[in-house]
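Design request, tokens follow.
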């Protein structure tokens, strides 16, 4: 879709891309939780990022990496990469101690951070519908989680820190995405992660089993595709419009938790899920009606 297309079409397409990306990321979360039970966090993060980096270099070529290092967006790209590295390290570490559903639920403070920062840094106008969708979705998350009951506050704080970092990266994607494509964003962010994590491998490396190796390959594939669709979503649509749809990841988290670890969500989860879906579909309807008004 070209930059000359109507803004409402770009927004709806961006939301669609983001929904696909968020759904794919749910597979990544489950895979990571499985892997970090036996492998070091630094190694899992390196394995994920090196596979994505190889794919980006294959599609874009090494010359593109040099152009990004010298380009006008290099400082923003480095800042975003540092935030991503900090967020993933915190999130991967917390996944060892928290259930998948609990971890994803806490993570859903990210859309609130993204919406707030979009006002101050992107000067976006966040209308009543978007605020309502974000807040209703967050209420659904709280209901779905039920009483936290977590004995150890450290993993909870780690996920909150990761959510804050990710909220900031969403804003940076929106800013940098005006000049750089999604594959370029993926190339830059994963290159920094690979360089930093590689320095730790001689001290933490554990040889993965054949099954773990297959999981690592799958992690790279879902990580790459999830990043691409999410970046395209935030590139095409306002951050405050995309952020509420990230709540769909919660539904996937409970589903994977049941399939892999046999966790069956209680009744409050379904109540919360209904609110989350209502907030998301409600915003889609609002965007569609707004598009019709602009066309008229």
């Amino acid at each position: 879709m070209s930059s000359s297309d109507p803004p409402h079409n770009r927004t709806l397409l961006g939301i669609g891309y983001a929904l696909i990306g968020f759904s794919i990321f749910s597979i990544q979360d489950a895979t990571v939780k499985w892997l970090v039970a036996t492998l070091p966090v630094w190694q899992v993060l390196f394995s994920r990022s090196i596979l994505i980096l190889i794919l980006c270099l294959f599609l874009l070529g090494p010359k593109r990496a040099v152009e990004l290092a010298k380009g006008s967006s290099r400082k923003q790209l480095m800042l975003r990469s540092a935030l991503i590295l900090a967020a993933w390290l915190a999130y991967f570490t917390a996944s060892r101690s928290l259930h998948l559903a609990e971890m994803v639920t806490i993570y859903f403070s990210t859309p609130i951070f993204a919406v707030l920062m979009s006002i101050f840094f992107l000067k976006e106008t966040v209308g009543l519908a978007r605020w309502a969708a974000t807040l209703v979705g967050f209420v659904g998350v709280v209901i779905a989680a039920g009483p936290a009951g977590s004995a150890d506050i450290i993993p909870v704080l780690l996920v909150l820190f990761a959510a804050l970092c990710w909220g900031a990266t969403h804003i940076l994607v929106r800013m940098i995405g005006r000049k750089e494509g999604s594959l370029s964003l993926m190339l830059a962010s994963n290159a920094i992660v690979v360089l930093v994590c590689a320095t730790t491998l001689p001290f933490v490396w554990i040889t993965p089993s054949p099954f773990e190796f297959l999981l690592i390959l799958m992690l790279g594939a879902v990580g790459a595709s999830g990043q691409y669709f999410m970046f395209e979503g935030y590139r095409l649509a306002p951050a405050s419009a995309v952020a509420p749809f990230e709540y769909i990841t919660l539904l996937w988290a409970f589903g994977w938790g049941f399939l892999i670890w046999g966790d069956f969500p209680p009744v409050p989860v379904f109540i919360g899920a209904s609110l989350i879906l209502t907030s998301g579909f409600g915003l889609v309807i609002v965007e569609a009606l707004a598009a019709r008004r602009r066309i008229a």
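Comment from the thread starter after seeing the answer: thanks! The chain has a mean pLDDT of 81.
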